[in-house]
Amino acid sequence: MKLKKITIKGFRGFNTEETILFDDNITIVYGQNGSGKSSLTEALEWLFFDQISRQRLSRCKSEYQYEEYLKNVFYSESENPFVELTGTIRGIEYKLKKELISREYKLYINDLEVADFSSLALNLESYFRPMLAQTEIKALVDAEPKDRWEQISCILGQDTLSTSRDDLMALRNNKKTDEYKSSLRKYESLITELTEYPEFISLTQSLSSLNVAEFHLELSKILSISNHDIEAISAAISSKIKALLNSELGNRVTSISYPDRFKIDEFAEYIKTGFEGFASEAIKVSYGSYGKSELEFLNLGYVLGKSPVCPFCLEETYTEERKNSISKLLKDNEEIQIANSRLKTQTDEISLWLSNFEISCKTYLPNETELAAVAIKLKETGLEDLAIATQQLQTKVDTDTARLAQTLKESWESYRVYVEQKYFHKNTDVVLEINIDNLVNSIKQHFEDINSAWESLKEGIGKAISLEKDVDQNTFKKWFYIEKVSKFLNNSAEFITRHKLLLEIDLIQTDLEEFEKKEIETLLALHADEIKDYYHKLNPSDKVQFFGIETKENRRQASLKAEAYGKQVNPVTFFSEAHTNSLALSIYFPQRVDRNATWECVILDDPVQSMDDNHSQSLLEVLVEIQQRKQLIIMTHSKEFYLKLKGRFYSTKPAIYHFYNNDEKGPKIELIGYRDTERHLKVCKDMLLLGDITSLETAGGELRKAMESVCIEYLMYNSIPFNIAKNVQKNLGIKGLFDKANSVGLPDENTDKLRSILDISQQDSHAWSLANTNYNTISKGIDFVQDILDNHIA
């Protein structure tokens, strides 16, 4: 793709609408830091790739809220901010547009809205962005080895893989809730404990893979039972433990049970479905505007009335239109009345559920009466500590359940008032002060705390009884362990599902990282010689040379290799910023320029940030090579580099823009063309027309600059490099420029005309000024310069 024109409004540094025309060969954008140049690059990035490098590479991504960082902070117009680009793809012209709408956007191709740009066959996901942002250059070496991997991945165009990996990691972390982590610790403890029982080795595989069906099958073999469903296995395990603890106390302990977790969850979830069902019916009821008696009156009139006479007032007001209106109203309100009836039923059901909560709740917990009996037997047996612990658990069942019941009743009352205020009284200021999910979790946690406490206590009591009865402790422990494992698997359906999902995510992430590493290693190997070649072009005759990027085995890390004066050095600590800059460009050029068939353009945002004169001159020659096959768009803050670009590409007539005075309206943008001479002449002519003394003095100064400029342009037109022409100007002044121009073919007649209006009384001075700054002298000078432009420079 080649770029022809871009229009930007309300995006990043651009507030008011601005249009920039791109030259087919080279466009140069010059402006100081902060003038808005990077916003031009970012507009192109966002148009095609959604993210911009500034946000993508930031260590503080949370600071970049979508609309906040893309929309110009001063933009206040009703029209959506947008970026619109006209360009050619395989010779066909397209107009592409992207509008920013809060956190979303709309895309257009030739003014028709589209879902994406896939129809253009730009292969945006498999090819690589043609722009190298200044943030990418800065980020490469100022990074840890792990982070440098990300930067190299971005420059090589593989950042989609890194983004996918980051998304997987974020998904994994989101799935690791506190409840999951708690269950994971229990699970890992059970896995570890299993190694203590060699006779249960057959359970290892199924427990490790969390294959519940296989675990039950293997366990039924160990228990010597043919039925391997949950109830049968639980009964068999309980029978084993009861046989070991064969006493009145043992029988009481093993008889205390409670439902499996999924039944408890169903009970707890009712509070959510009940509350939300109540709100749903309340919303439907709130749509009604007639009471029951009013609706009965309307229905009676509808049945008795015969158009056009009203059955009540006997006037001819009962039109067909009115009859249809009443029919619709009755139909709509019929549904509302049904909802009203359901609302009352829902309210009664919730009230009944709450009034029975304590009783219902205790059916999901260890029985209080049985706990009391166990405590008495423990005391009789002399197990005082266990007796006290059992009594405390009994008290906890009673008091905590009562407290929870009261909390739920208060929450229901608060929720009911909230719904009525919001939907019946249309009170928009009312605030819901309870969290339903927290209520559900508090019920589940109540059961979890008490039932877990009983399991621990039960094991302690069982151990005490087994010691008293001289039962083999390993036998006792292993069956209590099996009971724990079985209960865990039966009660951890959500954990098992989540854990298996996380294992899949880990596997995908590992495969993705391996693929990403191979891709980047392949690209680095493929481009190794090209990267070094570009680096050497940017650093000719330099004793500090880069010779490779090495990736760490089995790690997403990259190390840079270089040598100075024959000795291996670490580029991170040894390279100057100019060398670092060169390295970033050297990695960028092979992949995103040379091997990037989709894009026929190259966009460089401030490529000479830290380069000295020698390095920038080398970059210039590299750009000359690239310009033979690609459209160049170059932003720079360096006046020296801007002048070099303008001079080196003089013959291609580049489009040159000056960005300046960036304020709340955005940057001021001036198309200054590739000829300084014409610009100086324009100012000169404008000042000449004003005619006052000050304006004539200004016109004289601009004419003097136009004379120097036309000589420099003549030299460049005749293949004299820009830097040589500038050196003549710097060292020999305008006299030297005249002589040099004469030496390459400019007739003496033309330079003599220019001399005729200059003060040459001081022959040795380089800084000749105009002899007179009157209208006639300046007017003649304009004609003399224009003659050289028209007749000696094409």
From TrEMBL:
<protein>
    <submittedName>
        <fullName>SMC domain protein</fullName>
    </submittedName>
</protein>
<dbReference type="GO" id="GO:0006302">
    <property type="term" value="P:double-strand break repair"/>
</dbReference>
<dbReference type="InterPro" id="IPR038729">
    <property type="entry name" value="Rad50/SbcC_AAA"/>
</dbReference>
<dbReference type="Pfam" id="PF13166">
    <property type="entry name" value="AAA_13"/>
</dbReference>
<dbReference type="InterPro" id="IPR027417">
    <property type="entry name" value="P-loop_NTPase"/>
</dbReference>
<dbReference type="GO" id="GO:0016887">
    <property type="term" value="F:ATP hydrolysis activity"/>
</dbReference>
<dbReference type="InterPro" id="IPR026866">
    <property type="entry name" value="CR006_AAA"/>
</dbReference>
<feature type="domain" description="Protein CR006 P-loop">
    <location>
        <begin position="308"/>
        <end position="671"/>
    </location>
</feature>
<feature type="domain" description="Rad50/SbcC-type AAA">
    <location>
        <begin position="5"/>
        <end position="214"/>
    </location>
</feature>
<dbReference type="Pfam" id="PF13476">
    <property type="entry name" value="AAA_23"/>
</dbReference>
